[in-house]
Specification:
Length: 300
């Protein structure tokens, strides 16, 4: 069970207050598969979320509800979690709500009709959300390790009259701090660019993203009490609002260097410097090409 809240800091009575509160609960079951081999795992879940929107998403003013079924399957053969040298991790997940064909209108149950009523359209959230994550590690020489990763996310819909959900979209760019789901938006890192800069300039995010990473790593210390390693990376990714616009080769590119420190009492900490080679149109002349990113926790 969880409750998260985000606001612009104004008091509740202030007309300028912008906030979103999300309350939810999840029950899940994880299991290991013995076929095709012992590296496979599966996770099944049922999720419920309640969104209390207070001008955070300006196009709606309603309180919204979401109920989803989730399934993920992964194959993880990585040799160790902190500084892996060999193996791969492949994961595919889907979370989907029912299509909600009926709604209550003035106390009567009927088929959903909306017109221009966004509050009715997004009262009961509808979507199916897919994510594919691919990671591979290989020791090139001694302790020098090459890591290759690719990630893809897509938020689809059932009914074109409703369109893409305003919740559960992707905010891409920056450090992806902790890589967690915050108030209905999934934060995805892309180093070398400001936080959220590859997504629209609002709180809605994008419906689709991809990301590719090549990383060279070399350890300074592999002591379990203080693991330290440096890295150099090439990275690229982009976002789209419609699947027909998706182009896996149309990406915003970056490169940089960084360091990671793992301490048992704090977990993984990191600092990266990334330089973004490509222009973000909506940032214009304000775009900063070199960016420093603080990392907390393992990044997918």
């Amino acid at each position: 069970m969880f409750h998260t809240a985000q606001s612009n800091g104004y008091p509740k009575s202030d007309v300028n207050r912008v906030a979103l509160r999300v309350t939810g609960a999840t029950i899940g079951l994880g299991t290991r598969w013995k076929r095709p081999d012992n590296y496979f795992n599966a996770f099944y879940s049922v999720n419920f979320q309640y969104y209390d929107n207070q001008k955070y998403i300006s196009s709606i003013s309603t309180k919204s509800y979401s109920a989803t079924l989730g399934f993920s399957v992964s194959r993880n053969s990585i040799d160790q979690p902190i500084y892996p040298r060999e193996g791969s991790n492949i994961s595919l997940s889907v979370n989907a709500t029912p299509p909600w064909p009926l709604r209550v209108n003035d106390g009567k149950l009927g088929f959903r009709t909306f017109g221009d009523d966004n509050d009715a359209r997004f009262k009961f959230v509808e979507y199916h959300k897919w994510k594919l994550d691919l990671t591979w590690y290989h020791a090139l020489a001694g302790k020098l390790v090459l890591s290759a990763r690719a990630h893809l996310g897509y938020l689809g819909y059932y009914n074109k009259d409703i369109g893409t959900s305003l919740f559960e979209r992707f905010q891409v760019g920056g450090s992806g701090l902790s890589n967690f789901n915050l108030v209905g938006t999934e934060i995805v890192a892309l180093r070398g660019y400001p936080d959220g800069s590859l997504s629209p300039a609002n709180n809605q995010g994008s419906a689709m993203f991809n990301r590719y990473i090549l990383e060279l790593r070399y350890p300074v210390s592999l002591n379990p009490q203080a693991t330290v390693f440096g890295l150099a990376f090439l990275e690229g990714g982009n976002t789209w609002d419609k699947i027909r616009d998706f182009n896996p080769f149309n990406i915003k590119r970056s490169a940089g260097v960084g360091v990671r420190v793992f301490l048992p009492m704090f977990g993984m900490l990191g600092l990266d410097y990334g330089y973004g080679f490509d222009k973000i149109d909506r940032l214009g002349s304000t775009q900063q090409r070199g960016n420093i990113h603080f990392i907390i926790g393992q990044q997918f």
